[in-house]
Structures are given as C-alpha cells and as structure tokens.
Amino acid sequence: MTRTPDAEWPALARRLADELERSGKLSDPAWRAAVCAVPRHELVPSYFQQDSAGVWTRSDTRTDEGRREWLEKIYSNSVLITALREDTQPPRVLSSSTQPGLMTRMLQALDVHDGQTVLEIGTGTGYNAALLCHRLGSAGVYSVDVEPDLTETARERLRHLGFTPTLVAGDGAAGLPAHAPFDRIIATCAVPEIPWTWVEQVPVGGAILTDLKIAHNAGSLVRLTHTTPSRAEGRFDPTYAAFMGLRPQQGEPGRAPALADRDATSVEHHVTKVDPQTPWNSMIVWFLAAFDLGPDIAIGFTGRADTGQPPDVSVSTPDGSWARIGMDTTDSGGHQVTQGGPRRLWQIVETANDLWNQLDRPGWERFGLTVTPGDQTVWLDRPDSQHRWPVKH
Ligand SMILES: C[S@@+](CC[C@H](N)C(=O)[O-])C[C@H]1O[C@@H](n2cnc3c(N)ncnc32)[C@H](O)[C@@H]1O
C-alpha cells in the first residue's frame, strides 16, 4: 500500500536536517526545528527537470514510483525549478526553490533574533518565507516577488500551513518602503549592485544579505551591516553561491547579454595558460576580471555534434571586443586564443589571474564591500586596502 506524503514527510524532513548538519550547512537548533517542521512538499507540489536535449518536463506524481521520486527529491538538498516561461524558445526559468543547505546557511548568516522583522526579496515558492515564519512568527516576515502569480500561490499555500506573512507583488529592487524599516533584508535573487533603498530600509545596526553579481557569474553572497546613516559595509561569505538575477519586470528575461557582433579588426592569436573554463570554475579570477570587462560581458560555447563537448568558449562585450579560447590543450600545454576588436578580453582575464596569484589566491572571505549613496567598492582584507575595485554600472 502506498503511504501518503503526510505519513512520510516528517521523517524525510528530519533526514534532510541531519544531512545538512553533517555537511556543515545547519548548526542552529532554531533553524533545524524550522527545517523539520515545514513541509516543503506543500510549497513545492511539483518541479521541472531538463533532459540532455534541453526539454523540460514536470515531475509526475500520478504513479507510486513518480510520487516516491518527487518526495525524495523534495527532501533532498536540491534546487528545484518551479516556474518556467514556456512561451519563449528556449523556455526561461522564472523561479526555483533554492537548495535547502544554501537557505539554512544564509538564514544562519542573517543572525536574526526574536521579535525582529525580515524582508525577503524573491518569494518564489514561499518555502524560505515559511522557515522565517516558523522562526520569527508571521507578523515579522515580509516577502516580495516580481511575479504576481507566485506571490498569490505562495500566499494560499502558506495560509494552508498556518503562516500569514505579508506578501507583495512588485520589484524588490525598491524594497518595501510602506512596511519599512526591517531588521534584516535577505535577497534570494542576485543584484548587479546594492540598491541604496535597501540600506535606507534597515536601521543602523541592521543587516542585508544578498548575492552580488557585477556581471554574469561574477560575485557571490555578501552580508552588509548598516554601519552609519550613509554607509553599509561587510564581507563576502566564504562559500560561493549563485542565484538567478533580479528581473526588472514580471516575465522579463534577467540580465543575460547576447554575444555581440564581432569587430573583425586587430585580430590576434596567442596561447594562454588560463583555463577557458575560468568563467565557470575559477570564480574569483572571473570576479576580478569582471571589474574591467564590464557588466555586459556575454559568454557562449557551442557543442560539437559528435561529442556534445564545446570546442571553444567565446566572450564578448558590447563594444565589439571578443575572444575565442579553445578547450583542447595545445602541444605546449596551453589553450589557443583568438581575439579581436578594441579590447583584448582574454588578456584582462589573464591579468586578473596573475593578480589573484600575486595576492596568494584569496578566498571570498577576504573580500568585502562598502556601499554609500554615491558609490560601491569591493576591497581586499580592509576597506582602506590598496586593492579596491569600484562597482560600475
Ligand atoms: C531563487 S527564487 C526564490 C526562492 C524562494 N525564496 C523560495 O524559497 O522558493 C528567485 C525569485 O526571485 C524572483 N525575482 C526576480 N526578480 C525579482 C524582483 N525584481 N523583485 C522581486 N523578486 C524577484 C523570481 O521571480 C524568483 O521567484
């Protein structure tokens, strides 16, 4: 006989909490209690999966086997795609339920206390909002999503579970001025810079936790404290994380520049020692490079028909500069680079790689961010460090 999710989920939620504890992503008993008490399956009744041909299908709970697979997945440390815009080609991901381990890491880093208020940017399924409600009570929780369908669905599902946070449909870049101030703001989508309105909506002493991505893939989680009326400052989290970008409007694609037209002048060839997978693998090098490459860098690769492996990676910027880096290793152990246009893009990545090595390969925790109404600056080790990079947009 098939057992229902109602009979099974508490044990699965405890198993998930155990797994997150073992892997160092959950240590606070209050957040453990929330993970054990909130039925994620009620907030994620289905999810989408993409096959190797890029085709999306919804999880199927009609069969016993399908239900079992769905429930196991819900109570695993997995990110689950929950909303797609299917009238575009290819379909665009609009929302997901974040990896539970990333959520618990962020919730712990948020350092909330009884009686505090939290604004979440990116309601999505409402699961993170439910964890916050369990910890702080619904009256302390506010959440905004740019997709009205998502806030409505989350409102219904949360109410069914006895949670009644304030949910609003709108652009979270503006925060929620009508309900401010908040002791904490947590964004579960990435921003290209910190909206100053967020700083204004937390009191001095309050905190903001968000994913800063100054360009595609370039940046990570940063926790800022509002230190003086005109300043917020803090460090990046030691572990890399990536969220979908904040979208200016409902259903809109996020910031994902297309490969620009290539300027055919000044074409040059050389062999690089820097791995062409840097944009995906060597996140800090790519972050440092992005300060010079600019916010609208586009990355692309094409698959070989026979193996599906890409022969090369391409990067380009709107000024027509471009670089193509071969994936195969040359006889000398490097990778062939061809680049053209006004700027030498891969040289910028090589320079960033050299700097990272000279600085003793710092991890994210050595980087910090200072935000004022007029500018935002990333620094190494200390705000007054000689190594500082302005965030430009
Ligand atoms: C990773 S999902 C959020 C996951 C969510 N916290 C949960 O527990 O399911 C990111 C969300 O950010 C939302 N989003 C994107 N742009 C936004 C914006 N400008 N304002 C508010 N939400 C936005 C997306 O619609 C999406 O639901």
From TrEMBL:
Q: Where does the sequence pass through the membrane?
A: none
Pfam families per the UniProt record, alphabetical: PCMT (PF01135)
Q: Could you list the residue ranges forming a coiled coil in this record?
A: none
Q: What is its EC number?
A: 2.1.1.77
**From what superkingdom does this record's organism come?**
Bacteria
Q: Which GO terms describe its biological process?
A: methylation
Show the PROSITE patterns listed in the entry. Answer: PCMT
Name where it mostly resides: cytoplasm
- Protein's UniProt name: Protein-L-isoaspartate O-methyltransferase
Q: Which organism is it from?
A: Allokutzneria multivorans
Q: Which PANTHER family match?
A: PROTEIN-L-ISOASPARTATE O-METHYLTRANSFERASE, PROTEIN-L-ISOASPARTATE(D-ASPARTATE) O-METHYLTRANSFERASE
